[in-house]
User: Which sequence fits this backbone?
């Protein structure tokens, strides 16, 4: 096979490895298969290129434009998935492993593209939380906003997920509006190289938005500024070295770390050997030991079971692991490919020996095992290894040594509190799973263990078929953990963007805050609507445009009729004496929902027009009771506009219902879908779905 010279992509140019390049080993044969690294890269130019080209170009785009860009990149990767699969076999990854790395990476980008359009405004500013009233008059208010950092995201990744590891960080950074420099681990950087090439070839990325360094980073860390972010995934030792570099410390440069993790799984005290959960528990463990040959930061390393079930768990796991095929990942029968390199194999065997010094090996041999289409001596193959630790409370290596391979240890417990204490001995982990069908057990574990883990994963027989997997980080949920796990957080939906944005408190008048946030704030200037706003299409509506309705008197007859019609006979609406006994009312009051219905009756324009549907209502508050004889009138103001597609967009209306004294009796935000342009198109393919 010809040698692969893995390039870097810096300042708009592909740069080949030079004489200082590092060798990359084929883990199946032990031969050198590629070279990566170039000492002559101009790292200053690389940073400048991101700062002066990529950053401004990305910041000029709105969140929705960036989300669409991300979707196009994910689509391009998806179309070339097979090429990524083909090259990934050389890392030791099997066909099943590709689902986690390649499909997982592409899926993560798709989720962020979708979240970007659904959950972010079509704007440059992200609003964090509600308006804070800072003065009695309402003329001085505050709010938190987030804007993209004006630097670069330097993303240093581990070897085990060359695609997912890049995409899970790249997607949020791009959506946030920050250019990225990816530095993959050298051992598998040729897979990342292909993924980067595929994205660049789309031609959609602005210049400088994505650069790639294969090999070493030179003095890049010393050149970063307070607007840059380092997002690191790898071992605790490397994280410590990098995060303590003087420039990072001196300039308070953000450093997000995801590192080792001694993840645990706990079989609840309520589960018996015949329960469906028992089998789900074993399946999960086998999957975690075998996937990526155990080279997964979230893999189960420690297994806690009620003491009475230790023997059964060992027996069943040994049977299942006995059926596992180790070999060349291209062979469809193979369940476990080699580790990424012989150096990694050496480390894992050394770490397994440390664990073995405190335990008994119940499955797997360090040297004697069968390999399909490969050689156990020359390739980086390792057999799954299972250990049993009799005295888990007095040992150390078992709780502190991460053997980054197919290695796990079983431990028994007598009481749930003892199990929780042992689970927490990992010193901070990415995930702990608990197999239980007893909600009280789940809560007890949560109160005792949540502080030590980034994610708690509960399965029972109801959800085990649907559950996404102990070791699978999802873009919607946090990935990270305290202490030993690095103290960082990634993913977690839109939260992930915050690593790449600055939160700023803004104080000022409602008009200033409306303009900054592109979101009308109560108390800001109201604009006269030239016609009924329901007759105006999405593109014509302007923030602050307000309709004030005529007023309507609420009578006792209205209240009675509404109660009979809806069946809502709550005593406060029907029984004057009972209502008086309630501390909030001085007699019968109108239903809140009657007020909402009458409000709609006052502001709705009945004719067919650009308003297509009412899709919801947020932040509803009833502030003052309305009694028979009171009158109400309504203010309807355009608060925010968010396009959804080329046909329609969401309008958020601020609605206030006031009484005859101008006191606010109710306030809420109404959501409608409005046609983008003046031609109201009737849909021919059935009702709109949201
Ligand atoms: P590693 O040896 O710590 O390397 C991680 C990254 O840091 C690689 O890209 C490496 O590049 C780079 N690096 C090393 N020294 C550097 C330096 N002085 N300056 C700049 N960059 C430097 O970790 P690994 O062996 O790749 O990955 C295995 C570890 O990662 C395991 O401990 C695993 O638990 C952890 N991991 C954690 C997560 C998580 O999300 N928490 C995910 C995956 C893996 P080179 O390869 O070029 O040296």
Assistant:
């Amino acid at each position: 096979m010809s040698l692969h010279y893995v390039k870097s992509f810096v300042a708009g140019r592909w740069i080949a490895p030079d004489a200082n390049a590092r060798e990359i080993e084929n883990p199946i044969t032990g031969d050198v298969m590629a070279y990566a690294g170039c000492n002559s890269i101009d790292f200053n130019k690389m940073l400048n290129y991101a700062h002066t080209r990529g950053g401004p170009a990305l910041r000029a785009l709105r969140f929705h434009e960036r989300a669409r860009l991300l979707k196009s990149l994910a689509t391009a990767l998806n179309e070339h998935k097979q090429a990524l699969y083909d090259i990934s076999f050389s890392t030791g990854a099997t066909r099943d492993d590709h689902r986690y790395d390649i499909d997982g990476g592409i899926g993560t980008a798709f989720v962020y593209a979708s979240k970007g359009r659904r959950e972010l405004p079509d704007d440059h500013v992200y609003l964090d939380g509600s308006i804070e009233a800072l003065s009695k008059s309402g003329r001085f208010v505050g709010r938190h906003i987030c804007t993209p950092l004006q630097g670069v995201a330097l993303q240093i990744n581990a070897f085990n997920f060359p695609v997912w590891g890049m995409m899970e960080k790249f997607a949020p950074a791009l959506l946030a509006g920050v250019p990225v420099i990816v530095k993959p681990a050298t051992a598998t950087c040729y897979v990342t190289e292909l993924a980067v090439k595929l994205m660049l070839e789309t031609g959609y990325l602005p210049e400088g938005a994505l650069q790639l360094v294969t090999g070493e980073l030179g003095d890049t860390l010393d050149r970063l500024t307070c607007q840059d972010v380092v997002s690191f995934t790898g071992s605790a030792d490397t994280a410590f070295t990098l995060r303590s570099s003087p420039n990072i410390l001196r300039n308070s440069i953000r450093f997000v770390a995801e590192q080792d993790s001694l993840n645990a799984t706990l079989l609840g005290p309520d589960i018996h050997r015949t329960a469906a959960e028992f089998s789900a528990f074993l399946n999960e463990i086998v999957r975690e030991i075998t996937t990526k040959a155990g080279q997964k930061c979230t893999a189960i390393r420690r297994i806690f079971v009620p003491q009475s079930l230790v023997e059964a768990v060992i027996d069943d796991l040994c049977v299942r692991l006995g059926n596992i095929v180790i070999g060349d990942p291209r062979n469809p029968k193979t369940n476990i490919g080699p580790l990424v390199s012989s150096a990694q194999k050496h480390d894992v065997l050394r770490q397994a020996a440390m664990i073995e010094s405190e335990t008994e090996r119940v499955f797997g041999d360090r040297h004697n095992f069968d390999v399909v289409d490969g050689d156990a001596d020359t390739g980086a193959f390792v057999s799954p290894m299972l250990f049993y630790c009799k005295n888990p409370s007095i040992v150390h290596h078992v709780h502190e040594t991460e053997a980054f391979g197919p290695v796990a240890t079983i431990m028994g417990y007598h009481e749930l509190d003892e199990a929780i204490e042992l689970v927490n001995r990992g010193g901070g982990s990415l995930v702990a799973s608990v197999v239980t069908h007893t909600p009280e057990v789940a809560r007890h574990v949560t109160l005792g263990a949540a502080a030590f883990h980034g994610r708690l994963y509960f399965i029972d027989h109801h959800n085990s078929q649907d559950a996404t997997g102990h070791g699978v980080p999802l873009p919607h949920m946090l990935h990270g953990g305290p202490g030993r796990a690095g103290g960082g957080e990634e993913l977690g939906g839109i939260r992930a963007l915050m690593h790449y944005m600055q939160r700023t408190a803004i104080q000022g008048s409602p008009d200033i805050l409306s303009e900054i946030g592109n979101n009308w704030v109560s108390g800001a200037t109201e604009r006269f609507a030239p016609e009924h706003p329901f007759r105006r299409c999405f593109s014509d509506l302007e923030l602050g445009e307000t309709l004030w309705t005529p007023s309507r008197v609420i009578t006792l007859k209205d209240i009675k009729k509404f109660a009979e019609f809806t069946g809502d006979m709550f005593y406060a609406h029907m029984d004057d004496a009972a209502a008086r006994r309630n501390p909030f009312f001085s007699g019968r009051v109108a239903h809140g929902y009657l007020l909402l219905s009458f409000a709609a009756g006052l502001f709705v324009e009945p004719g067919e027009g650009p308003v297509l549907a009412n899709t919801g209502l947020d932040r509803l508050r009833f502030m003052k009771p309305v009694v028979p004889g009171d009158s109400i009138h309504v203010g309807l103001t355009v608060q925010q506009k968010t396009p959804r597609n080329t046909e329609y967009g969401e309008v958020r209306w601020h609605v206030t219902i006031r009484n005859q004294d101008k006191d606010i009796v109710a306030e809420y935000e109404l959501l409608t879908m409005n046609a983008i342009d003046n031609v109201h198109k009737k849909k021919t393919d059935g009702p709109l779905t949201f």
